[in-house]
């Protein structure tokens, strides 16, 4: 998988505003500027500080020094103009890189108070909620993103894919398939991934279980070969995308070889259920079943470059179900996640659903 959510944050911010807020004089900021960028003039206005913070994002450098400088620039922008929503979103994004979720939420909620119909703010908040394991809240924000964006035809394949990832983790396979199919019709780069995800969803489904249909969401009877059909489609798209990438890489190699990305120790990849190659099904503890314990157990997971689980920590879930979910998580194997073709360590959310009978 390419372009995990944390890498998309900077580009999201570049799309969000781009110096759309009112300029203000420097207004007494006299501390020495220790975060200069060669060739970039020292900021004089609120928007200048935001622009410089976003400029760093263009280098793909998310080292601690760069992230801290960007937070400092966004804070300087807000001292000049406390209502600069782009600065609030900017600082929230970099707080998210540092896993400072409460600070990120504080900024993004204030930005949404000021501009309540900005879809990209809801998108950024959904990423924060996802990393906190608040999937219902993340899903509500993604619904808002798609409702606001689709009315203008601007909803992206990644919007639908992120929502599908959550549906899949929650066991809502019909809506997961629907959203992955929507994603295949938008964008140009990730068709193979989306079709392969559809195949994975079909493999999780029991073809003997009947499913309700509605006029708005007709899911055809599931055939035993549906997963194989979509896997073959994915392979076809994978070949096309590889051939396309070969030409692009040849053209880009001269300019990118000396400008390697600098990333945090681990990169956020959102909800990871769909990325699992081997996801053990936890055995429902008899004591938990007898007690009527059920629902979702949500865990924060760190995965290494090879797809092995390095650590797992329960975020929420019934106490009787937590140990077995954590054990299953540690035995889970994921497909390696890459950025610019290079495998990376990632953090994310894994969900196990227990249905008491």
How would you name the CATH homologous superfamily of the domain at 5-155? Tetratricopeptide repeat domain
The ordered H/E elements are HHHHHHHHHHHEEHEEHEEEE
What CATH architecture label of the domain at 5-155 applies?
A: Alpha Horseshoe
User: What is the end-to-end distance?
Assistant: 37 Å
Report the CATH topology name of the domain at 5-155: Serine Threonine Protein Phosphatase 5, Tetratricopeptide repeat
Strand composition percent: 5-15%
Give me the secondary-structure category.
alpha+beta
Tally of DSSP β-strands: 8
List the strand order in the largest sheet: 1-8-3-4
Task: Give the arrangement of secondary structure elements.
Blueprint: H1 5-16, H2 46-57, H3 64-80, H4 85-97, H5 101-114, H6 119-132, H7 135-150, H8 157-169, H9 173-184, H10 191-204, H11 226-256, E1 267-271, E2 276-278, H12 286-290, E3 295-303, E4 309-316, H13 322-330, E5 333-334, E6 338-339, E7 342-343, E8 346-354
Parallel strand pairs: 1-8
Antiparallel strand pairs: 2-5, 3-4, 3-8, 6-7
Helix pairs in contact: 1-4, 1-6, 2-3, 3-4, 4-5, 5-6, 6-7, 7-8, 8-9, 9-10, 10-11
């Amino acid at each position: 998988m390419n372009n995990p959510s944390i890498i998309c944050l900077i580009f999201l911010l570049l799309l969000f505003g781009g110096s759309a807020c009112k300029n203000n004089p420097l207004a007494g900021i006299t501390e020495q500027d220790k975060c200069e960028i060669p060739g970039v003039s020292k900021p004089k206005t609120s928007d200048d500080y935001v622009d410089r913070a976003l400029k760093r994002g263009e280098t793909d450098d998310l080292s601690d020094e760069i992230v801290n400088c960007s937070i400092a620039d966004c804070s300087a922008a807000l001292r000049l103009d406390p209502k600069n929503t782009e600065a609030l979103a900017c600082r929230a994004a970099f707080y998210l890189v540092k896993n400072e979720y409460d600070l990120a939420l504080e900024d993004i909620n204030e930005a949404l108070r000021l501009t309540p119909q900005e879809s990209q703010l809801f998108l950024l908040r959904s990423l924060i909620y996802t990393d906190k394991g608040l999937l219902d809240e993340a899903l509500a924000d993604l619904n808002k993103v798609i409702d606001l964006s689709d009315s203008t035809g601007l909803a992206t394949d990644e919007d639908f894919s992120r929502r599908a990832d959550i549906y899949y983790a929650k066991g809502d396979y019909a809506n997961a398939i629907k959203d992955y199919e929507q994603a295949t019709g938008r964008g140009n780069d990730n068709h193979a991934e989306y079709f392969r995800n559809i195949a994975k969803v079909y493999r999780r489904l029991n073809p003997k279980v009947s499913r309700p249909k509605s006029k708005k969401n007709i899911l055809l009877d599931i055939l035993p070969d549906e997963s194989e059909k979509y896997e073959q489609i994915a392979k076809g798209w994978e070949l096309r995308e590889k051939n396309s990438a070969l030409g692009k890489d040849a053209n880009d190699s001269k300019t990118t070889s000396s400008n390697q990305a600098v990333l945090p120790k681990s990169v956020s990849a959102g909800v990871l259920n769909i990325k699992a190659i081997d996801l053990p099904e936890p055995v429902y503890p008899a004591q938990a079943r007898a007690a009527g314990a059920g629902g979702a157990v949500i865990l924060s997971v760190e995965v290494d470059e090879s797809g092995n689980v390095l650590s797992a920590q329960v975020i929420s879930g019934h106490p009787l179900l937590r140990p077995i979910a954590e054990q299953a998580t540690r035995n889970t194997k994921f497909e390696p996640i890459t950025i610019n073709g290079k495998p990376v360590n990632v953090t994310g959310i894994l969900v196990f659903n227990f249905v008491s009978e």
